[in-house]
Amino acid sequence: MTRLVALFFALAITIAPFGHPAPADAAPRGQLVAALDSDRETLDPHQATGTIDYMVLMHVFDHLIARNSESMKLIGGLAESWKSVDDYTWEFRIRKGVKFHNGEPLNAEAVKFSIDRVLDPAQKSYLRDRFKGITQVQVTDEFGIRLKTEKPNPVLLERLTNLAILPLKYVKEKGDAHIAKNPVGSGPYHFVEWVRGQRLVVEAHPGYWGPEPAVKTLVFRPILDVGTAMAEMLAGGVDFIRLVPPDQIPVIEASGKAYITTAPIIRVIFLNFDVAGRAGAGPVQNLKVRQAISHAIDVDGIIQHVLGGRGLRAGTMVNPMKFGYDASIKPVPYDPGRARQLLAEAGHASGMKLDFMTYSGSIIASRQVGDAVAGYLSKVGIQTNRQHIEDIGLSSNLERTGKLKDIYLGSWGSWSVFDADMILYPRFHSGEAFAYVRDPKLDQWLDVGRNTVDPRKRMEVYAQVQRYIAENALAFPMYAQTAVMAVSNRITYKAASDETIALWRATWKP
Amino acid sequence: MRTYVAERLLDTVLTCIAISFVVFAFLHLAGDPAKVLLPPEASKEAVADLRRSLGLDDPFLLQYGRFLAHAARGDFGDSFIIRDRALGILVERVPATLELAVAGLGLGVLIAVPLGIAAAFRPRTWIDHLASIASVVGQAVPTFWLGIMLILVFAVSYRLVPVSGRESWRSLILPAVCLAVYLAPVMMRLVRSGMLEVLRQDYIRTARAKGIADRGILWKHAFKNVSIPLVTMIGLQFGRLLAGTVVIEVVFAWPGIGWLTVKAVRTLDYPVVQASVVVLGAGIALVNLATDLVIGHLDPRIRHR
């Protein structure tokens, strides 16, 4: 059966369209400036740690697998076709005639080198843990590569969208430190200049194997303060802003200079409970308290009034766009009366106090959403000890090391991987840094989901996991976020659901 | 004189070592950088591996000793976060920080000194009132708000200067003004009260009686006395500005040291924090030394002591 399914997949994707769909313009021209909410840390795609580094470097580097910006389906990147030979083996055919920006030919050797480089423990790549199920990388011929995995690895293709292909000779000659500042890839843009803290400049690469982009020069500028980025946009200094807070949307819309483009993304916003007591014993280890909290918060109200309707109410931690989503799980209804009753049953009729952390970063209007949650909780008698952390590095550090007591407002973007595994495993499997749940039953199911190829079996096991999470209120999924980007009137660009910025798709307005 | 400078330089080195020890100790109490560096799904073995390779498993004193030995050669190691030499990352931001500090402080002095002198020379007149109102307003206005207002008016509405960044000398104008407005009030008040004090002295009255013109009294007799505390204060402020100005850097997207250091502390990026503390410590100590030398030049009593 699994063979049959694999064969079906192989046939279905063999004739894969181009990775970077076509703008119809002639020669690339002009310059576009994009404001980013953080600075780059390295330009070596195997060393970069943030989602946003990956988004920026996608302009310079290609991956074996890409994603269609409309349907979000996997399509061929540097691989023009692939098939699963058996549950442990994948074979890829690499596009012929592709050259890196320095003229070096892109072949199976370069692909093997890139995968091996990520797997090499000495590289300390952030990506290593995502690919270490790969036990062997074999070059079958000049444009053929075979990957063997330790266990069946159904998420491998999805994950390969994150693994950039580097030129073997160039990296070996120049060394790692040089690559980190002078990247050479095979993507639509080649690297021109990087001044840390100021700008990263790339230029459309003549002879790119895919369709030519419309914009010749892209400048990425780190502007940490969104107010400054907005002012730049009004003054015409910036053409693109990635995260626009709801209160700034009318400003953009009234400016006559730019417009808003939105897309539902797979990032899910939720309340995390310290079920396992990693940060110490607390009331949320009681099921009734967790259920009470879930009934106490009017998420639809928050979406309506805080987010201006931009957000999708979620009943499960798995985003509807992901493989493994179970639509039969409905959101917990808002019912403060029921919440009070549950609290009384739990022995907290006279109220209680909880630690509650929120942080700035990938959650749009996180402070306001946190205020609303605290407000709803206080209505049923739960007082909160609010703490807001401005820095995502610090909050993520506290989160990973198990220091966040009681509840916090969390978010999970899944590195744009559209599979249930990418949220359920790291957040609910015992021993994972972000997991505040310890449950052998969940561990067993999640292992099955991770190492089974048959999609039907995986769907079943993930449905089971999601039901179990809902029944035991192991987390309170609130909503799936909507990406809100501001784009200058000079260009046409549409936000995509994988949360990426892909400015090779931008076209000049006539 | 030469021994004096040598002694002060030795002081500087000892101070830097002491600071580095304190910072080193605090950072090690703050948490485990290995967990910050690895992806969320990283296994325990991966964390242990990284700890080993970063040398975090060794005893504290051994780690500190190793750090000192390397630091003496200007090697603070690679940043944990930005994969590059910690010292290099810091040093490449020094020009931007210096530019802003010099421009902001210079402009601040240019505002504060004339205003302070005028206010003292004509106390309880419109100029004195204006100066005191301006200094209260200047100090009360939050820097980030002023920054945004300056941007909206001069960069967005009138397009006279760029909104943010560091592309040309014009990019420096708004952040420097913003910094000057923040720094000027204290200096202005110092000049004003110092001048008022001096102008009441007998020798000023004598000079006036001798028929010396106002301008001569002002610069030759009065201001020279005020300049000593003023130079001291400028030195202190300048030292502080070397550490960067986080708010101004963020509002104007100015690539200075401040934000880099704050971020390094928050992400437990030991090498960058240590490099910045030692570099700043040395910078501040040098500024202090320069201040003392200038004061010595202004005031012979200090020089001859």
Give the integer mean of the pLDDT values of chain A. Answer: 90
Beta-strand segment tally of chain A:
19
Q: What separation lies between the terminal Cα atoms of chain A?
A: 53 Å
Query: Structural class, from helix and strand content of chain A?
Result: alpha+beta
Distinct helical segment count of chain B: 15
Alpha-carbon Rg of chain A, integer: 23 Å
Mean pLDDT of chain B: 87
Residue runs with pLDDT of under 50 for 5 or more positions of chain A = 1-25
Percent of residues in helices of chain A comes to 25-40%
Question: In what range is the share of β-strand residues of chain A?
Answer: 15-25%
In quaternary terms, these chains amount to heterodimer
Query: How much helicity do the residues of chain B have?
Result: over 70%
Shape, per Cα inertia axes of chain B: flat
Low-confidence stretches of chain B: none
- The tally of strands of chain B reads 0
* Major pleated sheet of chain A: 11 strands, mixed
Largest interface: A-B, 46 and 46 residues
- The number of distinct helices of chain A, counting runs of at least 4 residues, comes to 17
Query: Beta-strand percentage of chain B?
Result: under 5%
Structural class of the helices, strands and pairings of chain B?
Answer: mainly alpha
Radius of gyration of chain B: 24 Å
Describe this structure in words.
The complex is a heterodimer of chains A (about 500) and B (about 300). By secondary structure, chain A is α+β, with helices and mostly antiparallel strands. Chain A contains 17 helices and 19 strands. Chain A has helices at about 1-15, 50-55, 110-120, 130, 155-160, 170-175, 175-180, 225-235, 250-255, 285-295, 300-305, 335-345, 365-380, 390-400, 420-430, 440-450, 455-470; strands at about 30-35, 65, 75, 80-85, 90-95, 135-140, 145-150, 190-195, 200-205, 215-220, 240, 260-275, 310-315, 350-360, 380-390, 405-410, 475-490, 490, 505-510. Chain A is globular and about 70 Å long. Chain A starts with a helix and ends with a strand. With about 300 residues, chain B is an all-alpha fold. Helices cover about 80% and strands about 0% of the residues of chain B. Chain B has 15 helices and no strands. Chain B has helices at about 1-30, 35, 45-55, 60-70, 85-90, 95-120, 125-140, 145-155, 170-200, 200-210, 215-240, 245-250, 255-265, 270-300, 300-305. In chain B, helix 8 crosses helix 9, helix 9 (about 170-200) packs across helix 11 and helix 13 (about 255-265) packs across helix 14. Chain B is flat. At the A-B interface, helix 4, helix 8 and helix 14 of A face helix 2, helix 3, helix 8 and helix 13 of B.
